[in-house]
């Protein structure tokens, strides 16, 4: 039996469409009367349409005999297997090449590669490079030198870039060592732990316990809070690294001493520059000999054989 | 061939109802072949002595789907900027309707996902299911584990509170101590020399776009290999591995479709 593809032509959908159109017009003109009439038309014709469309399903389906081709065993044996016989595409003649296919293959791959590269390189560069380029250093004005009595420690917290907000907040331990020769000397230790970068705390009483007031300086870097402290050393709350007051590691997992801030004195004011790394410090205060290295990340050795694990540092300010 | 009796009226009616119900599926199957594909995927033959332990992979997949769905919903309310991140999390937890629930599901579900990955990995190891020819799937699974852990790491920063911040500082610096490329990796993750506002949006992008994309791709590959290579018998199985199985004759159509007994199976041909 031959079955038609698709439904037979019928007028019911047209009636349905008219009903919908009337209903839509009715919604504007008169929802109660014309809208209901349109709805009724649509429902009636919709029902007839659905009935018509599903008539196949409801009819008792015809039974169809499977198509059988009679063959004697000898005939069946003579039928070649599908794997034999002539190939749909004949094998190339000896010496026959397909230069155009080869060319198109190459062109597709080549052009695709070029286009992919053109698109990918800037995107990947945009995703990765900004963190490495244009790393600007910041100068932080900590206030007049007179705010730092000789020999007193302060915990100074400040934003290196007030425009960036709280995320740029840093802390340093600052002590005025007095003058060495003619030059002012300061010990300015970064509170970034040399183990994994947690905030190192001063081990000792601060502010109110000492009977002293916190000092707030207003400088070009915004508000700078300076809390007086008498530290016996510095300690990290995360993994227990301990340092002495020169930042030398005394216990725990840190691999080197605490980083320090380079500083400058401008117009009688103490200005912090970038940080540098320190393997260890011999001596104290103004007489200390600081073994200075280029700034390295926490946990990275700057001396000893382990330093060879970090031959190339990413760009720093 | 057995002689078929004419079906009773009730039988005819039932078959008609069934045919009407499966008609849309039939329509879809005829144009896409996907129902057959889904059947192939869902009704695969597995060894008769499979074990409950072998459901850990599906459990992990379910945990990932929960993470994906709750994560998409959280992304509607979360604001990845240093100024707004913490307050938007507070808003989700305290004010958005059922926000506490969705955030809780995502937070605790993250641990569930990681734990299930390890349990699944342990099952595969103890069953010896990583051996030939399934080594590649083990490798894909290990990559999935790495991506899953990375998703956990990058997600941890997003609440932008003290715990999140310092945990990420430590985590990034931990990466930084890796020999040779470690400092470069750390600087990439920090989006600069120090953690800054871009770090948060970088982690957000990694956490909700790049890593889930990678996980979804690798899960697809993982499942493809499971289907292609089949499920392993437990090590205590008495059935010989790799034995030919007795196949039932394939149905004429994919089977979720119009019943074969009624009408012509290939009636439209």
Question: What this model shows, in words?
Answer:
The complex is a heterodimer of chains A (317) and B (269). Chain A is α+β, with helices and mostly antiparallel strands and 317 residues long. Among the domains of chain A are: 12-54; 140-299, Rieske Iron-sulfur Protein (3-layer Sandwich), CATH 2.102.10.10. Chain A contains 6 helices and 13 strands. Chain A has helices at residues 12-29, 31-53, 55-58, 73-78, 99-128, 207-210, and strands spanning 140-144, 153-159, 169-180, 183-190, 201-202, 215-219, 222-229, 234-235, 242-243, 249-251, 260-266, 269-282, 289-293. A 5-stranded antiparallel beta sheet of chain A has the order 4-3-2-7-6, with no helix packed on it. The longest helix of chain A is centred in the middle third of the chain and has 30 residues, at 99-128. Chain B has 269 residues and is mostly helical. Chain B has a domain at 53-229: Cytochrome Bc1 Complex, Chain C, CATH 1.20.810.10. In chain B, helix 7 (162-176) packs antiparallel against helix 8. Chain B is extended. The two termini of chain B are 23 Å apart. Residues 257-269 of chain B have low confidence and may be disordered. Chain A binds chain B through residues 3, 5, 54, 57-58, 60-64, 128, 130-132, 135, 164-168, 196-199, 238, 296-300, 309-314, 316-317, and chain B through 4, 12, 16, 19-20, 23, 82-83, 166, 169-170, 172-174, 176-177, 179-180, 182-184, 186-188, 190-198, 262-264, 267-268.
């Amino acid at each position: 039996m031959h079955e038609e593809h698709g439904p037979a032509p019928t007028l019911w959908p047209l009636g349905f469409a008219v009903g919908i159109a009337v209903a839509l017009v009715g919604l504007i003109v008169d929802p109660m009367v014309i809208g209901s009439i349109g709805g009724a038309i649509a429902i009636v014709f919709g029902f007839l349409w659905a009935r018509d469309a599903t008539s196949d399903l409801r009819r008792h389906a015809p039974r169809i005999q499977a198509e059988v081709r009679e063959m004697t065993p000898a005939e069946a044996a003579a039928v070649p297997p599908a794997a034999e016989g002539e190939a749909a595409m004949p094998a190339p003649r000896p010496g026959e090449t397909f230069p155009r296919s080869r060319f198109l293959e190459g062109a597709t791959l080549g052009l695709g590669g070029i286009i992919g590269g053109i698109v990918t390189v800037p995107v990947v560069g945009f995703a990765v490079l900004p963190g490495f380029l244009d790393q600007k250093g910041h100068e932080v004005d900590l206030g007049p030198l007179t705010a730092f009595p000789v020999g007193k420690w302060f915990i100074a917290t400040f934003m290196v870039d007030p425009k960036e907000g709280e995320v740029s907040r840093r802390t340093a331990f600052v002590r005025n060592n007095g003058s060495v020769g003619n030059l002012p000397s300061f010990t300015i230790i970064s509170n970034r732990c040399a183990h994994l970068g947690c905030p190192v705390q001063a081990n000792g009483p601060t502010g109110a316990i000492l009977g002293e007031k916190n000092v707030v300086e207003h400088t070009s870097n915004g508000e700078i809070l300076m809390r007086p402290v008498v530290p016996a050393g510095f300690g990290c709350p995360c993994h227990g690294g301990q340092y002495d007051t020169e930042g030398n590691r005394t216990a725990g997992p840190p691999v080197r001493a605490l980083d320090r801030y380079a500083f400058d004195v401008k117009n009688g004011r103490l200005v912090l520059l970038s940080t540098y790394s320190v393997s260890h410090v011999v001596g104290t205060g103004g007489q200390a000999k600081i073994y200075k290295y280029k700034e390295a990340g926490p946990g990275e050795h700057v001396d000893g054989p382990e330093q060879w694990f970090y031959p190339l540092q990413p760009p720093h300010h | 061939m057995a002689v078929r009796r004419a079906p009773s009226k009730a039988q005819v009616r039932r078959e008609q109802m069934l045919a009407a119900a499966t008609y849309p599926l039939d329509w879809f199957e005829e144009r896409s072949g996907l129902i057959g594909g889904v059947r192939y995927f869902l009704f695969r033959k597995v060894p008769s002595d499979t074990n409950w332990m072998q459901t850990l992979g599906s459990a992990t997949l379910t945990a990932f789907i929960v993470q994906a769905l709750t994560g998409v919903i959280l992304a509607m309310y979360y604001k990845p900027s240093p100024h707004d991140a913490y307050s938007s999390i507070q808003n989700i937890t305290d004010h958005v309707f059922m926000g506490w629930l969705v955030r809780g599901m995502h937070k605790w579900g993250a641990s569930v996902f990681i734990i299930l990955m390890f349990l699944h990995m342990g099952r595969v190891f103890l069953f010896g299911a990583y051996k030939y020819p399934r080594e590649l799937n083990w490798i894909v699974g290990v990559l999935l584990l790495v991506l899953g852990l990375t998703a956990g790491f990058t997600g941890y920063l997003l609440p932008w509170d003290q715990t999140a911040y310092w945990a990420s500082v430590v985590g990034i610096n931990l990466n930084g101590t890796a020999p040779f490329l470690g400092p470069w990796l750390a600087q990439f993750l920090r989006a600069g020399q120090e953690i800054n506002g871009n770090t948060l949006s970088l982690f957000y992008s990694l956490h909700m776009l790049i890593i889930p994309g990678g996980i979804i791709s690798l899960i697809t590959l993982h499942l493809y290999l499971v289907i292609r290579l089949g499920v392993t018998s437990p090590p205590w199985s008495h059935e010989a591995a790799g034995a030919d199985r007795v196949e039932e004759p394939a149905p004429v159509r994919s089977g979720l479709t119009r019943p074969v007994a009624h009408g012509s199976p290939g009636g439209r041909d």
